[in-house]
Amino acid sequence: MRVTRLAAALALSAAAGFGLVACGSAAPAASGSSPTAAQSSAAVASEPSAGSPSSAGSGSAAAAGAVLRVAPSALGQIVVDGKGMTVYMFDKDTQNAGSSTCSGQCAAKWPAVSTDSTSPSVEGVTGKIGTIKGADGKNQVTVDGWPVYYFAGDAKAGDTAGQGVGGIWWVIGPDGKKIGAATGSSAAPSATGSGGSSDSAPAASSSDGGY
Fold first, then answer.
1. Quick one: which of 3, 148, 151, 192 has the fewest CB in 10 Å?
2. What is the pLDDT of residue 82?
3. Which residues face 78 on adjacent strands?
4. pLDDT tens, position by position, 56-109
5. What residue ranges do the domains of the chain occupy?
């Protein structure tokens, strides 16, 4: 009888112990699941939203600068593009004509200042801004009704090598008016002696890029 009771008691103890072990092993699993969920939430929260790069990119594009702006030079305040390259007007064009007369070899030497927009943004330029259909079919920028161009001979921002070429190409002021040879004569001193003419250097021929 005593052996039977002892066996029964041992069986109950073993069962109770197994139950405690089972409960104990389940508890960590349940508690362990919480960090996993928390880590997942943190990972999702740390990921940038799909719109963030686009927003940053559009902000950078907006800050990229105006198509035209104003910069100081030896000729005074002149109109340049967003990268500081000087722009020019052409005397053979007609103001407000809505077209350019520079094409072919002329356009190769004097590329049009073009834009993707029909309402290009500017900074500091007070002359009326517009666009026409350029010789290359793109939107060519106009300032005060004059189509504007680059000069292939300008190598870097601030260069004004195209000023006065052929007596028909000129840098322009913020109001869109040309800055003539007299204004820039200090940058191109006369080749004559002190007793010679004070006129600016003779105009370049068409072969020099005047057209």
1. 3
2. 94
3. 71
4. 333 333 324 589 999 999 999 999 999 999 999 999 999 999 999 999 999 999
5. 1-37, 65-186+203-208
Would you tell me how many other CB atoms lie within 10 Å of the CB of residue 209? Answer: 20
Largest CA distance in the chain: 146
Adjacent-strand bridge partners of 133: 139
Half-sphere exposure of 74 (CA within 13 A, CB side): 12
Structure tokens at 153: 């001979």
Q: Low-confidence residues of the chain, pLDDT below 70?
A: 1-65, 181-208
pTM summary value: 0.60
Asked if 131 and 140 count as a contact pair (C-beta separation under 8 A), the reply is yes
